[in-house]
Specification:
Layout (H helix, E strand, L loop, with lengths): L10 H15 L10 H7 L34 H14 L3 H26 L2 H13 L4 H4 L5 H17 L11 H17 L6 H13 L4 H12 L7 H27 L21 H18 L24 H20 L3 H14 L24 H17 L5 H23 L5 H11 L4 H13 L3 H14 L4 H13 L3 H13 L20 H10 L6 H14 L4 H13 L3 H14 L4 H13 L3 H14 L4 H13 L10
Helix pairs in contact: 1-4, 1-5, 1-16, 3-4, 4-5, 4-7, 5-15, 7-8, 7-9, 8-11, 9-11, 9-14, 12-13, 13-14, 14-15, 17-18, 18-19, 18-20, 19-20, 20-21, 20-22, 21-22, 22-23, 23-24, 24-25, 25-26, 26-27, 27-28
Organism: Nannospalax galili (Northern Israeli blind subterranean mole rat)
Membrane topology: Multi-pass membrane protein
GO molecular function: dolichyl-phosphate-mannose-protein mannosyltransferase activity
Length: 658
């Protein structure tokens, strides 16, 4: 039986794999923080030692409280914990983050080799592990720092599976310790990334078809006899059933806890993130099914890789006559044939194919869009675990071909070429992650129909204060996706930076006209990306420079607040405007409302203190200055103004040096 083949990984194999990973990823150490790394690391307060550890378990991956609507609901505290460790060692210097990712990838590759040895011979196992170590599809997971969620989850995922394979004792008895360890490791994998839980499905398939050696016809025969009352279930099958029930029950418990954590709310994604998710039937189903062969093609031919597949990257399939449906049909036929072969026939080859298919399919299910929509169309990093199944299939197929003496030399040449070209592509692809500009420019070479990419190149140029060039990319984004509110806002902001006020106002007005219209008397129900509401703030901030248009600016702030009563920035900006309009009482009202939404904002307490000075209430003003200083002892304006206030009211002696 297959599990009898299991051999430990020797030092030569470990050295080979670690060496290959180092050779492929050494240049990733010189890359910076790009794309999602900015939100997950640079802007994430959960990494700072001053943040209590318990907040890691209350916030999502990006540092947003899970209870907030804008939260992505991706709960990965163990991954954030490793980012925090990096921060302790090197604060925000990217090299240590990239080094740890490369180490984790090497660890996954070595554990994967151990898993391969359960289903393949020694040589094929090393080939599968080498192909996994060098595959270019992994650059997003390894070189992109946020991809660490995949790497960590995979370590626990494979460890859970290896632990489960030891749960069968002599005489088919159940060994409970490895099962308990499996459940713990599954929980750890899920706390690194959600798809970790799918290893339970792989354990179940392994138990039934590999450890027990059942085939589908045999199971059907036993079930049929039992239902007709002609026979009882064999004892070994009952034992298997007990193991599966324990596994399933503990998984169900994990799912219940996970649903509690996300507070039964699914995250909010816009139609720009995943256009097919909001499309009608059959467009939605045809497009989502077509994405499966697209992902498979990326594994087979990872020549054109792209960091962002949202928006218009893959045009929707709106008809059954679309030629791309043939790819979907061929993919399902191939998968179905392999599946039927592996389930019907006994023998090691069918078991290897079955386990490879499970490794490809089950971990991919959460990202497949088939059961619930996700915030992307295709994401290369989610192919990290499914590529393991692909590598086992390739190694197994290569072994079959190389056994034929005619093809032996050719198969070795092809294999060597494939591993070499994949390694070179990985090495070359790593340089794309050097900076935001290089990453998004490389993506535009592959895909010119995604407005988000044009916007992101514009942002990278804008950060370098190169506004003229940034404007060209932002304008191109509005041509590619004319209804993209964010692109028009970017154009407006860039015109403002170039002091072209009239064009800036026109762009903001255009963005505002694309917003869903309010129906009087009805609750604002259209789901909207909160950052799109900034169009009102930006437009109001622009026109309030003109003294004669202050009322018009106030009207815009009020409109934003009516759309989203929890829009903090609108209250803050409106408070500043009302002070400018000599309406301190209304300004106080606005700031108090903002404080209800965010009591830990030192600037808000400072602004409220200024309002109290205008209202001739120095004691209240002083209280608010002190509150601001409690939250931020280095708040220079609060220090300066509270000192003046104390001096004026004769309390100078009470000043304590901060």
């Amino acid at each position: 039986v297959l599990e009898g083949k299991m051999a430990d990984v020797n030092l030569t194999e470990v050295t080979l794999i670690v060496g290959v990973v180092a050779a492929c990823y050494w240049n990733s150490l010189f890359c910076g923080f790009v794309f999602d790394d900015v939100s997950a690391i640079l802007d994430n307060k959960d990494l700072h030692p001053s943040t209590p550890l318990k907040t890691l378990f209350q916030n999502d991956f990006w540092g947003t409280p899970m209870s907030e609507e804008r939260s992505h609901k991706s709960y990965r505290p163990l991954t954030v914990l490793t980012f925090r460790l990096n921060y302790l060692l090197s604060e925000l210097k990217p090299m240590s983050y990239h080094l740890l990712n490369t180490i984790f990838h090497a660890i996954v590759s070595v554990i994967f080799l151990k898993v391969c040895k359960l289903f393949l011979d020694k040589r094929s196992s090393v080939i599968a592990a080498l192909l996994f170590a060098v595959h270019p599809i992994h650059t997003e997971a390894v070189t992109g720092v946020v991809g660490r969620a995949e790497l960590l989850s995979s370590i626990f995922f494979l460890a859970a599976f290896l632990s489960y394979t030891k749960s069968k004792g002599p005489d088919n008895s159940i060994v409970w310790t490895p099962i308990a360890l499996t459940v713990l490791l599954v929980a750890a994998a899920t706390l690194c990334k959600e798809q970790g839980i799918t290893v339970v499905g792989i354990c179940c398939v392994y138990e039934v078809f590999v450890a027990q050696g059942y085939t589908l016809p045999l199971l059907c025969t036993v079930a049929g006899q039992f239902l007709r009352g002609k026979g009882s279930i064999p004892f070994s099958m009952l034992q298997t059933l007990i193991k599966l029930i324990v596994l399933m029950f503990s998984t169900l418990l994990l799912v219940v806890i996970r649903v509690q954590v996300i507070q039964s709310q699914l995250p909010v994604f816009t139609r720009f993130d995943n256009p097919a998710a909001v499309s009608p039937t059959p467009t939605r189903q045809l497009t989502f099914n077509y994405l499966l062969p697209v992902n498979a093609w990326l594994l087979l031919n990872p020549s054109e890789l792209c960091c962002d597949w949202t928006m218009g990257t893959i045009p929707l399939i709106e008809s059954f006559l679309d030629i791309r449906n043939l790819a979907t049909f061929a993919f399902f036929c191939f998968l179905g044939t392999l599946g039927m072969f592996s389930l019907r026939y006994p023998g090691d080859s069918s078991k290897t194919v079955l386990m490879a298919l499970c490794l490809m399919a089950l971990p991919f299910i959460p990202a497949s869009n088939l059961f619930f929509p996700v915030g992307f169309v295709v994401a290369e990093r989610v192919l990290y675990v499914p590529s393991m199944g692909f590598c086992i299939l390739v190694a197994h197929g290569w072994k079959k071909i190389s056994n034929k003496s005619v093809l032996k030399k050719l198969s070795w040449v092809c294999l060597s070429m494939m591993i070499l070209t994949h390694a070179l592509k990985t090495l070359h692809r790593n340089w794309d992650w050097e900076s935001e500009y290089t990453l998004f420019m490389s993506a535009l070479k592959v895909n010119k129909n995604n407005a988000k990419l044009w916007n992101n190149v514009g942002h990278a140029l804008e950060n370098e204060k190169n506004f003229e060039r940034a404007l060209k990319y932002f304008l191109q984004a509005t041509h590619v996706q004319p209804d993209d509110i964010g692109a028009h806002m970017n154009v407006g902001r860039t015109y403002k930076n170039l002091n072209r006020t009239r064009e800036a106002e026109e762009s903001y007005m255009l963005a505002k006209s694309l917003m869903p219209q309010i129906i009087p008397g009805k609750k604002y129900a259209a789901r909207i990306a909160p950052n799109h509401l900034n169009v009102y703030i930006n437009l109001a901030n622009l026109i309030r420079a003109n003294e004669s248009r202050l009322e018009e600016a106030d009207q815009l702030y009020r409109q934003a607040i009516s759309m989203r009563p929890d829009f903090k920035q609108a209250y803050i900006s409106r408070g500043e405007l009302l002070l400018k309009m000599n309406k301190p009482l209304k300004a106080k009202e606005a700031y108090l409302k903002a404080l209800e939404l965010d009591r830990n904002n030192a600037d808000l307490w400072y602004n409220l203190a200024i309002v109290y000075i205008e209202l001739k209430e120095p004691n209240e003003a002083l209280k608010n200055f002190n509150h601001a200083l409690e939250l931020n002892p280095k708040h220079k304006l609060a220090l300066f103004n509270s000192a003046i206030l104390m001096q004026e009211s004769g309390k100078f002696s009470n000043i304590s040096v901060q």
